[in-house]
């Protein structure tokens, strides 16, 4: 090893505390980058692989009823590579151990196992046996949530008839990676499940022999999706087609795609902050090191070392800790990425969520860390190589003196000498003090923004489950029913209040833009189900015209006052021109509303409804649930309270993980900044503080002068950090919002208190460590006059 190499390692060991702090910050940034990049790549790759292996369709079409011969005609359409007609039906289930009625979606599968579009992955059990009409394969999330085993039976009302179904297998499907009830948004695996049944058995139960009511299409490589959708709509119009849509509008795929996009956003934010802080710490450490080694630099130049050799030597002070941090961060990131991937496997129903990482991501993380090191060290190294030997042999000129603002104004005289020294030191190094405070503020910002997601989701849940939806049960009918069904439901013992509404699938057209959208017809906006905007404020439904959510109106390029063409996709398939009266900012989904009477005029078939919202007397709920399980004509029942509890459980698990990680990372960041700042102040002011000790000041007073500066900077950082956290949360809200949901900008006071105590605790720990180093100072060695 060369002389410069030995000098490098010796002095890095001497500065090991500060260097480890730098390495820890870099490791945090790299670990987040590698972990989230790995998760992003794992989700995206697994999704594509899953779709390819199980032949997930590209286009979907629901319809009333069509003969199987129409599948062959769909294959003639240019761009269609494969097509599959199947039977789909939603039914009410009676599950052992569950008092409430559950909802099942029945999907037909070939009587004999063969590859088909939207295939299933058999996880446990077996496929159907020929001639067994009561056998079904159930989705794994439903089985696990209800504690069911292969061989158990469940009851179902299929086409108005009670049936006992035997579960012979457990499976998953690419169609239901995110498994939610139709019309829902949050998963409730206990009360909703997907079931696959042999085609002959399901066709017999639903009187659908030789027919189908759902079409899946796979496109050829060079197909035009828009053209295929248009041709399918035209071909199946007479069969009650409700509008073909592509994979991008499939609810499960859209949810997964949004999740992958959000992970990609997180890849850029946190690593950028950590690497910037690491560069800052390296800069101040190296500048201090260079200032104390001016004479050594001059001697090295006098001995014949070139500027390049000296510059590379001091650059090594930056590259060494960053290399350690990059290595530790990469290993931690791979471990963390694997753990997060396992967490995602609990939320999404992949047959197997593969953990994958790319060597290019690891290489990029290393390059980013070295770029941060070089960026942080550039100024210090440049000052080294530009230092003439003769000038370096002299001690560094002191900074300009003179009275500061506090001294000239006389304000400083009101404070004690220790406090005066603290304020003077901050005032004489304004840039360094401001940057140090900014770095601490970033730690606070990470804590605030990290908890923002939980605040936003909690607010969304409160708005949806407590204020907007106040029903206990929603009953959905498999066919439009007359309003007389309201009297039938109201007669059930335990029904306190009931409210009917209608849903009509339609195509909304504004200029050259169009969207396939369900229009909800409601009689009032302040009943059991209320209209609320993003600020949780009530909204009154216009008596005439159309009301759209702001996101839907924006996607259509429509503004209040515009006239939209509305093509209803079922029943009489009427066309109407409806004025957009207003827009409403809702948090979840895309919605279109009309007054029920107005919807009846536009769509026809007056006096019919699609569903009913019920408020129940808890004392009679068990009896009512038993009646609902056997009620014919019901496609599904949703339980608001159960859905809320299920979602809260999912959010609680994810929040604990993310909060713990962000707290640790933000704590490391704050510790590194405060500790390095105090250590550098100690090295810069060691002579001054030792002189004060000789003059009679106690260790406590000296510690106050040294650490007081960091206390002031930390206090100054708190309000700024809160502001930065709110700004970062706002940017996250903009970037994470999608058509499926809009993130509200809300903050809970408890999270600011939590962030405050974390920063204070970290500052105290770093202060204790630095004070121990100060107490061990050799006064005689420090006070020796430099030659």
UniProtKB/TrEMBL annotation:
Q: Which domain of life is it from?
A: Bacteria
Q: Does the keyword Glycoprotein apply?
A: no
Q: Name one GO cellular component term.
A: plasma membrane protein complex
Compartment list: Cell membrane
**Family matches, as PROSITE patterns:** PROKAR_LIPOPROTEIN
Entry keywords, A to Z = Cell membrane, Membrane, Transmembrane, Transmembrane helix
The way this protein sits in the membrane is described as: Multi-pass membrane protein
Alphabetically, which GO biological process terms does the record hold?
A: lipoprotein localization to outer membrane
Q: Which residues form the ABC3 transporter permease C-terminal domain?
A: 269-389, 662-769
Instruction: Kindly list the residue ranges recorded as spanning the membrane.
Output: 20-39, 269-290, 311-335, 355-381, 434-454, 660-682, 703-732, 752-770
Q: Does the keyword Transmembrane helix apply?
A: yes
Query: Pfam families attached here?
Result: FtsX
- Similarity field: Belongs to the ABC-4 integral membrane protein family. LolC/E subfamily.
Designated name of the protein: FtsX-like permease family protein
Q: What is the organism of origin for this protein?
A: Prosthecochloris vibrioformis
- Which lineage? Bacteria, Pseudomonadati, Chlorobiota, Chlorobiia, Chlorobiales
